[in-house]
């Protein structure tokens, strides 16, 4: 039986960022269905949007809501916008190198954005961000990463998730148990 404090499913940006921001006293397992360089986050070429200033909030909100056909959770969008500069600073602190122009960032306008607020790292933003997050997570002694492990079931009882069942590339299954299970929306 394998016991952990936290199980994270996926090595995309969300899973790795979560591992970095959990306490170092937590025994963390990360399960990923492929190799570390094959998540959708790692392969992404686009950029990451950031609030340019306090006066950018309403425009950023409208652009995001419109892109989501107004089906977005407005509170979740507000959190994303308001925390975007802090997240960018966290990424800079672990060594992510966004493209620069003169003395500042090089912003582009992509997708549904009406203003240039996208930071990028050439055409390999995903590789740059995910790669730096992965290096930072791999330095943590409290984190174990298992590649080529496909999660095939969630272990739960009484509305409480307490683990996951994963299958390795050879078809063997193993149960992993934890106090908390975190699954990325997409990897």
Description:
With about 190 residues, this protein is α/β, with parallel strands linked by helices. It has 2 domains: about 110 residues, 3-Layer(bba) Sandwich (FAD/NAD(P)-binding domain); about 80 residues, no CATH class. The protein contains 5 helices and 10 strands. Strands 7-2-1-10-9-8 form a 6-stranded mixed beta sheet. Helix 1 packs parallel to helix 5. It starts with a strand and ends with a strand.
Number of separate strands: 10
Total separate domains? 2
What is the N-to-C order of secondary-structure elements (H for helix, E for strand)? EHEHEHHEEEHEEEE
> What is the helix fraction of residues, given as a range?
25-40%
CATH superfamily of the largest domain: FAD/NAD(P)-binding domain
Structural class: alpha/beta
Distance between the termini: 26 Å
* SS summary, helix count: 5
Q: Which ranges are low-confidence, i.e. pLDDT below 50, for 5 or more consecutive residues?
A: none
Provide the residue-averaged pLDDT: 91
CATH class of the largest domain: Alpha Beta
Largest sheet: 6 strands, mixed
Tertiary shape:
globular
CATH architectural designation of the largest domain = 3-Layer(bba) Sandwich
In what range is the share of β-strand residues? 25-35%
Cα Rg: 18 Å
CATH topology of the largest domain: FAD/NAD(P)-binding domain
Describe the strand arrangement of the main beta sheet, using strand numbers.
Answer: 7-2-1-10-9-8
